[in-house]
Amino acid sequence: MGVNLTEPKSPLIKREWWMALLIIAAIVAPFVISEFYLAILGEALIMSLLALSFNLLFGYMGQLSFGQAAFYGLSGYTVAMLLTKIHFNFWLSLLAGILMASILGLIIGFFCVRLRGIYFSILTLAFGQLLFFVIYKWHDFTGGDDGIQGVFPPGLLKSPINYYFFVLIVFIFSTFLLWKNVHSPFC
Question: What is the sign of the dihedral through the CA atoms of 53, 59, 61 and 64?
């Protein structure tokens, strides 16, 4: 009566091995790839967070949203404006960007969560386009289509490896929060 150690007992254990392997590969990556590919990998992690937000809305809730990029952009503009216009602390600017996107999410969500199907999609598209139009046309305040110039990370994040690890930590933490939200006993 021996135990077979070669096969995992459940698919969950098999999935955990893949996750552990991916995390180890992500940690080792900066030491085996060039700075160019490290920057690409960091950008891929950032865009993956946007994809995970889409997966939460459409994959788990069945709501097709066209507006989540507006929150992504609003947070970025908030950070950039705080850094360039009033020379605010970088770390506090990041928190302010999250707070601003959360507040706008609550306001827009108040109107959108009551709708289903195509009506939800159209309203999220309308809010996303409204925010795009405001940012694009308010050239004096937002820089319009030129964007905001002169946004630089603090000294700690100027190293490509440090920046990558910062993005990786934020990605892992955010992914864990989304996973906990989806697998919560209250859902």
Answer: positive
